[in-house]
Amino acid sequence: MLKQSGLGIAITGSGSATPAAVVDNHRLATLVETSDEWITTRTGIKSRRLATPEESLSAIATSAAKNAIAMAGITPADLDLIILATSTSDDLFGSACKIQAELGASRAVAFDLTAACSGFVFGLVTAAQFIRTGVYQNVLLIGADILSRWVDWSDRRTCVLFGDGAGAVVLQANESDRLLGFEIRSDGTQNNCLNLAYQGQSKELIDGVSIAQGTYQPITMNGKEVYRFAVQKVPEVIEKALFRANLTVEEVDWLLLHQANQRILDAVANRLKIPTHKVISNMAHYGNTSAASIPIALDEAVRQGKIQPGDIIATSGFGAGLTWGAAIFQWAR
Ligand code: ACO
Q1: For ligand 1, is residue 218 a contact (CB within 6 Å)?
Q2: If you take atom 47 of ligand 1, which residue's CA is the nearest one?
Q3: Which among 151, 157, 185, 226 is the best mutation to test ligand 1's pocket, defined by most ligand atoms within 8 Å of the CB?
Q4: Is the dihedral of CA 273, 277, 71, 4 positive or negative?
């Protein structure tokens, strides 16, 4: 099962960090016309963490990264590459370099990667290419988002879904390859299902030359379409990644999906015939933290001792773009 190429990959550390402020459904019901009962039955979410104005994306991402680096038993100086998967960086030019500086990872090259809620899986696959080609040995991958900055807090259809947080993993070159299979996909024809779009006002700069200046508009989502997309595409892409890994569904120890909605998790598990006890779910406490949701859930399951060395994990991210992807890996520690 494991490829012995000498240019393999192993995830050797995980970490997470979430803001301290907890907002449960009851408190949200004081802001918009909703109820704990509606949110719980439709989504499985009970509360979420929200970043205060003092908490930057780079700060929570750095905390998560430090935990992952410590678990991996390396130092920031050992890092060759830092990838920050996010849609909500502090700076439109990217926040990865700020994290590099805060960690003191002076040797590492750092850049942001945007693939919305698929960002962690896309980042994992991207990081793997650098290791498999022998270019880098130690890579830090962070998934972090502060979507509370971009949610319309008067829109009950979307504001109840999201939360803020960061998760990270360290990937290292390894004798045997623990990334067993993957598949990543995009479909821009469905782009209008989920957007956080820039809207500029036309402004004539000089005679005959106009530019657009404005800001990003809050998240808009066609919930039903996104639900349909997820429950159809996620099982397909996991099956494809399992095929590449030469594994069967029965050999999967843990199903670790992007924590968007409990109903999506249940439907995907049901389609794949994966029993509930193998499904990792923590969205009740955090809501949908976009690119952060998979590494936060991974880190919690590892630290709770649920995920054990040798376990096979099928993970899948899906979201805006539309983008989706799956990776099958073996926990190595
Ligand atoms: N509280 C109370 N009522 C609400 C709320 C709320 N928070 N939100 C919507 N409603 C009402 C609607 O107004 C509507 O009322 P109406 O029938 O009187 O018009 C009714 O509830 C049903 O609304 P729908 O939008 O049809 O609700 P639906 O059953 O589709 O559930 C949900 C909405 C939970 C968003 C669902 O579509 C879903 O799970 N979609 C998946 C999308 C998702 O998970 N997105 C996360 C971000 S994307 C990602 O990470 C992949």
Answers
A1: no
A2: 260
A3: 157
A4: negative
The residue whose C-alpha atom lies closest to atom 42 belonging to ligand 1 is 223
The preferred substitution site among 153, 191, 226 for testing ligand 1, maximizing ligand atoms within 8 Å of CB, is: 226
**Distance (Å) of CA 128 to CA 105, 174, 294:** 19, 11, 17
- CA of 263, closest atom in ligand 1: 39
Which atom in ligand 1 lies closest to the alpha carbon of residue 159?
7
CA distance 5 to 176: 7
Per-residue pLDDT of the chain (333 residues; tens, 9 = 90+): 444 455 899 999 999 999 999 999 999 999 999 999 999 999 999 999 999 999 999 999 999 999 999 999 999 999 999 999 999 999 999 999 999 999 999 999 999 999 999 999 999 999 999 999 999 999 999 999 999 999 999 999 999 999 999 999 999 999 999 999 999 999 999 999 999 999 999 999 999 999 999 999 999 999 999 999 999 999 999 999 999 999 999 999 999 999 999 999 999 999 999 999 999 999 999 999 999 999 999 999 999 999 999 999 999 999 999 999 999 999 987
Q: Which residues of 9-39 are buried (b: 16+ CB within 10 A; e: fewer)?
A: bbbbbbbbbbbeeebebeebbeeeebebeeb
Domains of the chain: 8-178 (3.40.47.10), 181-189+220-330 (3.40.47.10)
